[in-house]
Amino acid sequence: PSCKRTTAMEKQFGPIVTSVLLALTFGCWLTAMVAPGWFLIEIKTSSSSLTSALGESPKMKITTEVDMGLFFINVCVNEKCEQIDYEKMKTMKNFHAMPELLELQAEGVLAMALCTISALLVMIPARSKSTRYLIALILMSIAVIFESILIYRMASANAEMDKIKKIERTLLTGISMEVKLPYSILIAGIGALFGILGCVSSAGMYRKSRDCAQPGQVLNVFHAAPATGFTILQETY
Predict the structure, then answer these.
(1) Domain range for 142
(2) Considering only CA atoms, which of 26, 25, 23, 38 is closest in space to residue 186?
(3) Does a structural domain hold residue 104?
């Protein structure tokens, strides 16, 4: 009876809680993937010699902002913005520290795809609950690993650029470089936390559904034995 009550509660709350966690994970990862916030850098130049070489007024300050997403890059010069290809960005100074874009895209897309499949396995009714909970747990764990690798690589690239910024600050005058907070990494990290909670919830549902299934199977065998024995006695006498 207690197992039946637990199973009824799981049918109402377990899949709902897990689905909400996976939905939050998907939402965070989607937002992080489409937003140009994985790498943010601002370069300000005020050197008269530099501005003269560029054909600008010596008193004019040039502010260049680079906002990198996984699928596009925005480059703004004095608030005039333009989207350019990643291949062009790789030829620019200091961008050799960035990981390959295709690998980053693959990691983000695979993580979201596995998260979607896991959510469908949890929400769609099926006879074998324990099996689909286990599959959802495995797929979601892989998704969190992919997204964590993406977060780590981009965080390392930001840290590397921060080191370069400190070196150039001591060598160049009239140029200031600022690496801004990569908000897409933070959003993806929050999504990864939701994903871990979703894995924990899936593991709990799998364990409980498996524990409830085993006593039921033993109980059926136990009730079948006396009936079979009674039939044999009738045929004998």
Answers:
(1) 2-219
(2) 38
(3) yes
